[in-house]
Q: What sequence folds into this?
């Protein structure tokens, strides 16, 4: 019985910190509860890649600190219901829960109700994405398909393809252009 209780307690801790697809939950990075939520119709067939234009991070503590600061800015200064992105990626190779798989984000005006926004911490005009962060996003996308959050024929685009921005930065954009689900011609999905 003691072993069962210990295993169960570890499972509860793991599920609190690492949710669906191994994502660090809001409880795991000490995030605030959203003020309001709108549910996202799934499966989603569009993934938008962005960057934060902040400093990068490679430690759990620093990445969580940056994610908390982003959420505070989004909610307190910009008036969003929650952190804007669906997921935030640290240079440490961890994915942090934002709006998540189930809720509409506020990452790309005109596309939020039909996409997942994945935001890399850093400025990828200058920084090079870490292998750990790229591998983590690829694993997240595979898991998203397996769990029915993403359609099997989803498309990946850079933020810059949909609105006037440099995001996700030249170096990250160059990387995602080589990914199998990358959509070069966005005319069929553009608002």
A:
């Amino acid at each position: 019985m003691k072993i069962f209780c210990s295993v169960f307690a570890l499972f509860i801790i793991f599920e609190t910190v690492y949710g669906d697809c191994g994502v660090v939950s809001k409880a795991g990075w000490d995030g605030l509860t959203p003020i309001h939520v709108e549910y996202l119709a799934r499966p989603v067939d569009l993934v938008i890649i962005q960057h934060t234009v902040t400093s990068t991070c490679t430690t759990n503590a620093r990445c969580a600190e940056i994610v908390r600061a982003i959420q505070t800015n989004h909610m307190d200064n910009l008036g969003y219901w929650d952190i804007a992105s669906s997921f935030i990626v640290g240079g440490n190779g961890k994915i942090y829960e934002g709006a998540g798989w189930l809720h509409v984000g506020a990452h790309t005006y005109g596309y939020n109700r039909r996409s997942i926004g994945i935001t890399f911490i850093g400025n990828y005009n200058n920084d090079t994405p870490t292998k750990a962060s790229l591998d983590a996003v690829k694993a997240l996308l595979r898991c998203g398909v397996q769990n029915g959050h993403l359609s099997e024929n989803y498309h990946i685009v850079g933020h810059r393809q949909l609105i006037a921005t440099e995001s996700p930065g030249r170096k990250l954009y160059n990387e995602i252009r080589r990914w199998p689900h990358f959509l070069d011609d966005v005319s069929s999905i553009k608002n």
Remarks:
- The first strand starts at residue 44 and ends at 51.
- The domain at 19-176 is CATH 3.40.80.10 (Lysozyme-like).
